[in-house]
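Re-run with default settings, no changes from the original entry. Doing this only to confirm the output is reproducible before filing.
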Amino acid sequence: MDSGQLQELNEFFLQTIPFSELSQPQRADLIRNLSIEYVAKRQQQVSMSSDEPRLFIVSSGAFEIRSPQGELVDRLDRGGVFGYPTLLTGEAVVNKAVVLEDGLLMSIDGDTFNRLRQQNRAFDRFFVQAHAKRIRVESRFVSKSDSSHFVVTSVMTTDLIHARLQDTVQDCAKRMRDHRVSSLLIMEQQCIKGIVTDKDLRNRVLAEGRSSDSEIQTVMTPNPVTISLKSSVFEASLLMSEHRVHHLPVMDDGRVLGLISSTDIMRNQSSQPLLLVNRINRQHSIEELVKVSQQIPKLLQTLISADTRAEEIGRLLTLITDALTKRLLQIGEAHLGAAPMAYAWLAFGSQGRQDQVAKSDQDNGLLLAKEPTQAEQDYFLRLAKLVCDGLDACGFVHCPGDIMAMNPTWCRSIDSWQQQFYKWIDSPQPKALMHASIFFDMRAIYGASHLCEQLQHAILKRTKGNSIFLAGMAANAVKAKPPLGFFNKFVVERDGKEVKGMDLKHKGNALINDIVRIYALADGICEVNTSARLSKLMNSKLLSPKDALNLTDAQEFIGHLRLANQGRQHRNGEPISNYLQPRDISSLARHQLRDAFDVVHRAQQGIALKFARGMA
């Protein structure tokens, strides 16, 4: 290794935690025992040995650590480390290191790693803390005490039993008996065509007197309801309840990878969020709903205490808000009579994106199938007032900006909504766009969802590649900056003499939402959830996979800190806020938060260069 390479390595480790904590002789020992290898994406995985464990350090490229069940444990790029759990515990390697991008990996053997741990307390403490955090993350995949927020892979069956369309009812019944299963997937050329269950055989064959020689396709349920591999067990439970089914094929990119049944869920979980939604669905008055909704803050604290990912907490809380909204609409329709035309209740902002947290206010509207008469408009405004006031009583306060369905401005026909969006898109005024941005995070909660899909299609057709509109959105998105000053020092906000701290919502998560929204609208992506948009953008030419991964990680890390801080505020009896004092987190967390804010800053620079056209 020549002097230039040695100097480059030394500078790398000086700038990378925890190696920056090492003394110069210790760094020299590290570099002297360093191995460097090139890994290509086509290799798929990094080779790791339980017999000769090593500490791996990412010099370039991108990697994912995944559990044996395929769950994402960690994402790593330059400066990231993996392989330390086996070095610390002596246990076998179980997780996989998946190669996302070609890169260089450095590594040291166990003797060097242990020698540096013994010589340097800060170095040792870093890996002990990292391992403790990893245990908490991985415990989500094995704990069954409250698995409602786990993904369906934690309980689904992967040993799938299937049949062909032409197989007889008798053959299929024998197959179900022999394999001791209550359902059978009907497949053709690796595509799922239907599902048949014990209940189908009872109701559609025996009760109807059909022949056992009948083809199974005549009694199966065609095009069954399915669920995504990344969905939570809670969402699976809701989907089963909504469609009155007990089996859901689990899909990923058009392929069926598993099956989840109501029995699987009952056996493996005690679902507190689902119980809360079921209670909501059984109430018949606003007063009863208010009483049930008083359990939501307790549920939030339980999820925070369980170290649940911020994205999952947002989805769970939003699903509960959705349930409250639907039940209020049903109570309203029972009180006012049937709606005079088809309509969809729309959620905007955080509820639209499914990332609600504590103290979320309302942002909603009504989408009507046609221009209403005065009597029809009066009906919908009365219905909307009942729902909005009901949500306010349940803790989801009225929108300070009056973006609510009970405001006639936001109770419109589909043609009127379309013209309003076209006005924002075709004649973008900075102030109007700033207030309108949340409307582009739109989702149908109840009613004729096809109306929302029709409106979204028209909007995306207008925004895709629309340089003037995107320039206006980008100019607004870079006005607020993450709280980093010179030399990467945190900038805290003050209220008189009081130090409020850093606003993790408006100077962190909201900035990422703004950035990702612009890319999604530019690319015509129909998703509104920020993580889902980033997942779609992985395959886009507008944003590199590495930048998409960095924004995903920054969103989760800032959101997790924000929720953990709110949990601490709740325990201490303090007012719940989005402000974090740097002193309230560890030095390692402060370092990671600086990195997350730097990702946001660089992403803002990216959209300014790509879209702003000198307006920023």
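The chain has four domains: 3-139, 151-268, 272-415, 474-612. The first strand starts at residue 35 and ends at 39.
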